[in-house]
Amino acid sequence: MTSPEEFTLLPLACFDAAEILRLHYQVYIFDPLHSRSTPQSESAFITSKLASKMADLNKPHIHASILVPSSNTSRIASYILYHISYLIIQARLIVVVKKIERDLSGDVESLRNGLDKDLVFRLKMEDRVVK
Questions:
Q1: In the sheet that 7-11 helps form, which strands lie side by side, from edge to edge?
Q2: CATH fold of 7-83, please?
Q3: Pseudo-torsion of CA 20, 25, 27, 30, nearest 10°?
Q4: CA of 51: how far to CAs of 21, 56, 66, in Å?
Q5: Could you count the other beta carbons within 10 Å of the beta carbon of residue 48?
Q6: Dist CA 48 CA 40 (whole Å)
Q7: Domain residue spans in the chain?
Q8: What pTM did the predictor assign?
């Protein structure tokens, strides 16, 4: 009796795109839609789709992981893409901005009279956001 294979979940890196396309190629080869036509070679398939796959994986709202056998972490068994909603990203950004506003408002209130506190606040906020 053999024990079931163990898998590990790892973060997906951009250089994994070609391996992911190898998985897609296996699906492409066995897809009945392509059974009558002459299929592309694996290298041509990967080359034609690599740039767009890398662009997809580099989108800011996408987080990805790969599932690899624990015994051979260089072989990808599957991958998972998490599409984070723009609303979640926006909510996180609002929380960060409010924290920065709280931090800066204390600094600005301690300034001496005669300075335009609103202008100083906006300049400091812009500086913090740019950094």
A1: 7-11, 62-69, 78-83
A2: Aminopeptidase (3.40.630)
A3: -160
A4: 11, 9, 19
A5: 11
A6: 10
A7: 7-83, 86-130
A8: 0.57
